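The records we work with from here on pair a chain with its fold. Each token is a code from a learned vocabulary of local backbone shapes. A record is reproduced here so that you can trace the correspondence yourselves:

_____
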Amino acid sequence: MTIHPPSNDRVRAWKGSPDIRAPKRYLTRNKDIVRETDILIAAPAEIEEQIRSGTWSTVRYARKLGKPVFVILPDGTVHVD
């Protein structure tokens, strides 16, 4: 398992793994995650896509790269791109 920690230590989970990336700002880290995955599973807090949301920004980036995206909405609905 690869860990991509945020640069904000206050909200970091501090899990261990042999493969821990350097801490980065959220949007930069999220793009790294997308580039290193085959699929993206996202669980945004909102049902409607938001412009100023890190989760939705990550979903948009995965779509732009042509990655399969599974979005699990708060009501349990799953959208597959």
